[in-house]
Write a structure and sequence with these properties.
It is a single chain. The chain starts with a strand and ends in a 14-residue tail after the last helix. Strands 1, 2, 3, 4, 5, 6 and 15 form a seven-stranded mixed sheet that branches. The protein has a five-stranded parallel sheet with strand order 7-14-8-9-10, covered by helices on one side. A five-stranded antiparallel sheet has the order 16-17-20-19-18, with helices on both faces. The protein has eleven helices and 20 strands. Helix content is about 30%, strand content about 25%. The longest helix is centred in the N-terminal third of the chain and has 24 residues. With about 475 residues, the chain is of the alpha/beta class.
Length: about 475
């Protein structure tokens, strides 16, 4: 058995792994990046970018069909093969950019193999080699979860890792999972002429707990495809199509060409963690300090989707950088600076959740509907609601829950404001150009000012159509 030795070994060459390798190398560490494929990041290959390419195609078709509301008549003829060809072509361009990063890694700093722990400082590789490292970063990412009841129809099951490889759009798809991944892909497919229905054993959409926010989202989505929540499914096949039957809050039967399993992506942690001495939970995951990315007090760090606390790209980059820095400096571990949490779902209307409310905090909130918002009415996108939460003493912003037009942009503004510790009245003193979607935040901010007694709430802030 050949042995490698290094200061920091990183398992997984995705967004978090690349960030960890760069950060560790910047501290002078000798690094070894280990990956079984070096195929590209999840975002570029099977995640953010191909899904947004499908959404872009769906939106183009939807806009063409919906133009009549503006007095413009048009139709949308879908060429499914062309849609998928463009998707893969543009996606492959993004992937090639990641592979260019792999090519620029220093000689001897990457190794293609599958790694497993054999103690806290030792890795065994499936090519017969072993690695000894002063510290190790786990950046193994996540994988699709396929429910057990689909075992007998596996030939027709798609995931986000196989959907984008279809040569043409399918005729019909049953989507399992009413989270962001399932709803984004369901709407995109439906807008491209695919017969779609979404199923979920839970009772909510996209993790939204507030009915004031969730209800307009559900109404808009159900206008485009069927959604069955709180149901239990069974599946059978005639060798080709899949027959679903469901019971629960609703009851019925339907047949689909394919089933898309989109009910979550658990962390890939089948890497021998039981040999490390770490305490593992029922999912086989260790406890991770979100400030340092360290697992207990061991020379082991975790970042990105493997940690699963904030499974989004910019957080994977940040966690990778923190983990890599601390792995290189171990045992002198220091907290890294974390960002305001932000999650966005790119449906129409979009959904965004920003910030978090400290446990036990006394809060006030303000809400605003987009149903009568000026810009939204002009563009016929007037659906949705925003709720902003602030501390009850001074109106300092803490969190926001949003469904509406272009809320991915408003979410950034609110995330930046929360991270800067700004209050509702401080935002109202800033410019709101008319007519913009951002004006839709003003009524919610004013309501917070009224609740905390801020003087600015009494000023004339009326804007026609806002």
């Amino acid at each position: 058995m050949s042995k490698f030795s290094c200061d920091v070994a990183i398992i997984g060459a995705g967004t978090a792994g690349l960030g960890a390798e760069r950060a560790a190398r910047a501290k002078g560490a000798k690094t070894l990046l280990i990956d079984e494929a070096f195929a590209g990041t999840t975002c570029t290959t099977v995640g953010c970018m191909p899904s947004k390419l499908l959404i872009a195609a769906g939106n183009a078709a939807h806009d063409a069909r919906g133009a009549e509301i503006f007095g413009v008549k048009g139709t949308a003829e879908i060429d499914g093969a062309a849609v998928m060809t463009r998707l893969r072509g543009v996606r492959d361009g993004f992937v090639s950019g990641v592979k260019d990063q792999f090519a620029k890694l220093l000689d001897g700093s990457k190794h293609k193999a599958r790694a497993r722990f054999d103690g806290p400082n030792r890795l065994i590789l499936d090519d017969g080699n072993a690695v000894m490292a002063k510290a190790i970063v786990i950046a193994t990412g996540a994988r699709p979860s396929i429910p057990d009841f689909l075992a007998n129809v596996s030939h027709a099951v798609l995931t986000n890792e196989t959907l984008f490889e279809l040569d043409d759009l399918p005729q019909s798809v049953g989507v399992i999972g009413a989270g962001p991944l399932g709803l984004e892909l369901a709407q995109a497919l439906a807008r491209l002429g695919v017969d779609v229905a979404v199923f979920d054993k839970g009772g909510g959409l996209a993790g939204l707990e507030d009915d004031e926010i969730a209800e307009p989202l559900r109404q808009c989505l159900e206008a485009e495809f069927l959604i069955h929540l709180g149901v239990k499914l069974t599946a059978a096949t005639d060798g080709k199509a899949v027959a679903f039957a469901w019971t629960g809050k609703s009851k019925g039967k339907a047949t689909f060409s394919y089933i898309l399993a989109a009910a979550g992506r658990p962390a890939q942690l089948d890497i021998g963690l039981e040999t490390t001495g770490l305490r593992l939970d029922k999912h086989g995951a260790p406890e991770v300090d979100p400030a340092t990315m360290q697992c207990e007090d061991a020379p082991i760090f975790m970042a990105g989707d493997a940690d699963h606390s904030r499974p989004v790209l910019h957080e994977a980059q940040a966690e990778g950088a923190i983990a890599g820095h601390n792995a290189a400096c171990y045992p002198n571990v220091k907290p890294g600076e974390r960002m305001t949490p932000m999650a966005i779902m790119f449906t129409s209307p979009a959904m965004a959740q920003v910030g978090e409310v400290p446990k036990g905090a006394k809060t006030v909130s303000g809400s605003a509907s987009y149903s009568d918002q000026g810009r939204a009415k002009v563009f016929a996108t007037n659906a949705g609601c925003v709720k902003i939460v602030a501390d009850a003493e001074k109106g300092k912003l803490l969190a926001a829950h949003m469904v509406g037009p272009a809320v991915e942009h408003s979410a950034h503004l609110l995330a930046w404001a929360i991270q800067q510790g700004l209050t509702a009245d401080a935002l109202l003193k800033m410019p709101f150009y008319h007519p913009t979607y951002e004006e839709g935040l003003q009524p919610a901010l004013r309501a917070i000012c009224v609740a905390v007694g801020t003087d600015y709430a009494d000023r004339d802030g009326f804007v026609p159509g806002s």
